[in-house]
Write a structure and sequence with these properties.
Number of helices: 9
Shape: elongated
Strand order of the largest sheet: 5-4-1-6-7
Order of helices and strands: HHHEEEHEHEHHEHEH
Distance between the termini: 16 Å
Length: 242
Amino acid sequence: MITSPVFYLLLLLLAAYLFRSKRRTRNTLIATAVTLALFFTCRPIYNLLSNIWADGLTTEIKPGTTYHYGIVLGGFGEWDEERDRPDFSKHVDRLLEGIQLYHKGAIKKIVLASDGSNRIPDNPDDKSGNPIGMRKYIERLGVAPTDLILENKATTTRENAQFLLEQLGDSLKSARPLLITSAEHMRRAVMTFEQAGIPVDPYATDCIIMEKGKRNSLFSFTVMNNWQTLLHELIGYLYYKL
């Protein structure tokens, strides 16, 4: 399902053009498009609803607490085969926080869960999504090879939980792992893992912050991109719930 607000705004404007001979219908469509544009570009509205969506899922790790597994969900980047280096996305906080927690001793082993970009394809000669390069890169950041686990089959969050359970077995259930992912993705991710029989503690990244002294514009078209992610998570959550 398309979750981009821009798509539906353009659809409304196209409908207004097609019904231009019917003044009342045309004006209603244009007014609806303008109203939705103001709603989806209003930063305070997005910040409020996004924080409500992530409320209660930003658990702080208590001092002295150690998790055996820290599961870092994919989406933080892809491997650039041509340049032999990672190409990180805006969600790289997931990986960086996981590595930091490892070095602090909060987690013993980092589990990288695939989002499809780092999976091993059925064709062994196809190097797309090469997880070996990403492993070597993370090891260069000080993570011991024996403390890095790759789940490289999944393309969805549901498959992450299923394949990790197959790969790591009951050790995932004996002690709650720490689930590390973006705040917007956390609610759906927690529900998915618990549906698979894996109770987890959440550790949210990419949280909305308000920098002191920084003035943010009331309206911004860039907020629409954030709405696309939030709507995707909401629809995905409802789908998994049903």
